[in-house]
Amino acid sequence: MSTPGPVRLEGREKVTGTARYAAEHTPPGTAYAWPVPAAVPRGRVVAIDTGAALAEPGAVAVLTHENAPRLKDTDDATLLVLQNDRVPHRGWYVALAVADTPEAARAMAAAVRVSYAPEEHDVVLAPGHPRLYVPETANAGVPGSRERGDFDGAYASAPVRVDATYTTRALHNHPMEPHATTARWEDGRLVAYDSCQGANAVQETLAGLFGMDKERITVVAEHVGGGFGCKGTPRPQVVLAAMAARHTGRPVRLVLPRAQLAAVVGHRAPLVQRLRLGAGEDGVISALAHEVTTHTSTVREFVEQAAVPSRAMYVSPNSRTTHRVVALDVPSPSWMRAPGEAPGMYALECAMDELACASGVDPVELRVRNDTAAEPDSGKPYSSRHLVECLREGARRFGWDARDPRPRSRAEGPLLVGTGVASSYYPVYLMPSSAEAHVTETGRYRVRINATDIGTGARTVLAQVAADALGVALDRIAVEIGSTALPAAPLAGGSAGTGSWGWAVHKACRALNGMVDARGGTVPPGGLTAGADTAGDVPSDPPDAKAAFGAQFAEVTVDRDTGEVRVRRLLGVFAAGRILSARTARSQLIGGMTMGVGMALLEGSTMDPRFGDFAERDLASYHVPTHADVRGVEAHWIDETDLLLNPMGSKGIGEIGIVGTAAAVANAVHHATGVRVRDLPILPEKVL
Ligand code: MOS
Fold first, then answer.
1. Pocket perturbation via mutation, ligand 1, pick of 335, 428, 456, 659 by most ligand atoms within 8 A of CB
2. Which atom of ligand 1 lies nearest, measured to the CA of 228?
3. Is the pLDDT assigned to residue 22 strictly greater than 90?
4. What is the number of domains present in the chain?
5. pLDDT tops 80 at residue 245
6. Which among 100, 104, 166, 482 could bridge 347 via Cys, Cβ 3.0 to 4.6 Å?
7. Signal peptide span per the entry (predicted)?
């Protein structure tokens, strides 16, 4: 195995507290903002009395739809805050208090009196909801519905059949650093320090909303304390902070209170997924249907594309994959780590386990038998696909062969013990990027690119890519990222950051070497600079299907008396292209797997039908795994360099770790107990 690689370049700054996050910039005269969320699930604001709020000591202003700066239209209506009197869901912002201190702003927000004309609301996702429709496209632009061959006929005649419905609740990302912005206007220019996954998108969105040339806006995201997708697109805090700074003429800092996040920064929508698998006695699939029912909001359509992995994973000559969605009076769903794939593979991989039981074929062997060299839905060959190798290597490392397949076959005192397996899958996305490389006369290098490090180690990996492309030692390279003042780059999302940024960095570094070579190896006093842009290099419709694969194995214990499920061992083997940095890759993969344990056993947001509100508003009620919940997590990978993808031969690793984990755990729970829990999270009462 490769060496761990360098430690994070910004590690010292972070652990000594000198790395500055969005809410740690305090320009002179900074005022502080606190939002006022709507207290009804649907209706209109009829009056806002700001008198008491403005009488608070330290009060500066209250922004409402009556006095806030007007915004231009945008395709993301979740950002059109304080523009009219509509309340599309509870928690939608209806006012913003601004004061000399955060405490005063909070007191003001509590003193704002809002009168509403409430309307009937509908927040319950029911499978037979009369307003369900099939969207033309689901998230990521995929077709809402796909049909191949004759599913009904093939399923009806299949010797072995599985028909199971899996349900999942809404999920929230909850990064350690809540969404935050410090914004200031100077001579008609806007500077925003924003906690986001991609500053260029924020800059462009602000330019559109405020009707400005984007060259007059700088967005800085130098350090970001986690995102997982909920910072993948601009969020209301940056718009509100910019509005408040313009309105008051002072720099304004807005940190969203964690209790408000559930309503305004997106969630993974609740899902009802019906899986039908028809197979031969040998377990080979002849018919596959994956039918997804979910919700979106009335503000913005976002359809979790959970049926998508069923279009890619296994042989399925007759296939139906559909999404149906209903727009409810709920907060807008949005990105959460592996949107589509994480919940979709939970359902598909549990159904595969049920098929293994029904056909009597070992779960690892079943997946091997249904492997395919081409993506079934598109017919395109995979540029590389090493799922089988991951399954075999994982089985070997985990000790799968010793497994007695019968449920309830292992016990240790009060504990039932079980093991389960699931496949992992995540598509490879690549986006055009630009970058710049500079060399000084003394042979020091500087790489500049507006990449975002959301805790992944992006800086470090880009330095490694540069060192590799330049053929020089890492310590001669400085990397500047995290500002729109740098060459434009795409967001840290879709597991596409490193591949997309790295490609541009690689290209700039090679161009720089070419310039130095052309001068006979000499660098002039001012140094040399090379820019690169991969807009012409990244194919828009590649001839190959591109994805990373993996296999995850879980061992759980289930307490017969309490129903408590513990994950004792979790082992993943991934085929994710060339691993550029073993240290940061391992961290990404086990981080994703840990989040998958949360999805399996702990996480879930509850929509209160009366109040139209998510009940969980803090980390005491929204449970995520702690260290004690995650024992023995191992991530491994197999050698795979896919030069059809990019010059590094890498695939993304940010999301694949969470894909399959919940199914591996659920399948292990079934093996331990004989109980098939088809509803996440697997709480104690469900297994007793
Ligand atoms: Mo990730 S959900 O693509 O930020």
1. 335
2. 4
3. yes
4. 3
5. yes
6. 166
7. none
> How many A from CA of 493 to the centre of ligand 1?
4
The answer on 202 and 91 residing in a single domain is yes
Q: Which domain holds residue 196?
A: 22-120+179-255
Give the 3-state secondary structure of residue 641: coil
Identify which of 173, 428, 500, 655 to mutate to test ligand 1's pocket (most ligand atoms within 8 A of the CB).
655
Residues 196 and 296 in one domain: no
d(CA 484, CA 497): 16
Do 225 and 111 have their domain in common? yes
Task: Look up residue 525 and give its two tokens.
Answer: 């006093």
What does R_g of the chain's alpha carbons equal in angstroms?
A: 26
Question: Does residue 343's CB lie within 6 angstroms of at least one atom of ligand 1?
Answer: no
**227: CA distance to ligand 1 center in Å?**
8
Q: Is residue 351 classed exposed, middle or buried when 0-12, 13-18 and 19+ CB atoms within 10 A define those classes? A: buried
- pTM of the complete model: 0.98
Distance CA 467, CA 584 (A): 17
Whether 174 is in the pocket of ligand 1, judged by its Cβ within 6 Å, is no
Nearest atom in ligand 1 to the alpha carbon of residue 491 is 4
Where does a domain end: 230, 255, 280?
A: 255
Contact 36, 68 (CB under 8 A): no
Q: What's the 491 CA to ligand 1 centre distance in angstroms?
A: 9
The CA 439 to ligand 1 mean position distance, Å, reads: 34
553 and 659 within one domain: yes
Instruction: Measure 580 CA to ligand 1 centroid, in angstroms.
Output: 20
User: Does 340 sit in the ligand 1 pocket, CB within 6 Å?
Assistant: no
Residue 51: which CATH number? 3.90.1170.50
Q: Give the span between the Cα atoms of 410 and 618, in whole angstroms.
A: 38
Same domain (yes/no): 116, 231:
yes
* Domain containing residue 491: CATH number: 3.30.365.10
509 lies in the same domain as 644: no
Q: What CA–CA distance (Å, rounded) separates 569 from 565?
A: 12
The domain boundary, picked from 503, 533, 563, lies at 533
What is the rounded CA–CA span in Å between residue 386 and residue 370? Answer: 13
Q: What are the catalytic residues?
A: 655
525, 595: one domain: no
Q: Which residues pair with 555 in a beta bridge?
A: 419, 569
pLDDT at residue number 469: 98
Q: What is the ipTM of this complex?
A: 0.97
**Is 232's C-beta closer than 6 angstroms to any atom of ligand 1?**
yes
What does the pLDDT look like over 494-516, one tens digit per residue? 999 999 999 999 999 999 999 99
Burial class from Cβ neighbours inside 10 Å (0-12, 13-18, 19+) for residue 140 reads middle
Residue 3 lies in a domain: no
Ligand 1 binding pocket includes 324 (Cβ within 6 Å): no
139 close to ligand 1 (CB < 6 Angstrom): no
Q: Is residue 16 part of a domain?
A: no
d(CA 460, CA 478): 10
Tokens of 428: 């490879």
Instruction: Tell me: do 578 and 523 sit in the same domain.
Output: no
Query: Is the dihedral angle over the CA atoms 191, 196, 200, 204 positive or is it negative?
Result: negative
From the CA of 229, give the closest atom in ligand 1. 4
Return the ligand 1 atom nearest residue 492 CA. Answer: 4
Residue 597: inside a domain: yes
| Residue range 129-145, pLDDT digits in tens | 999 999 999 998 999 99
Q: Which atom of ligand 1 is nearest to the CA of 337?
A: 2
pLDDT digit string (tens) for 640-663? 999 999 999 999 999 999 999 999
> What is the C-alpha separation between 532 and 507, in angstroms, rounded?
6
> For the chain, percent helix, then strand, then coil, each to nearest 5?
30, 25, 45
Report how far ligand 1's centroid is from the alpha carbon of 615 (Å).
24
Q: Which of 139, 195, 337, 431 to mutate to test the pocket of ligand 1 (most atoms within 8 A of CB)?
A: 337
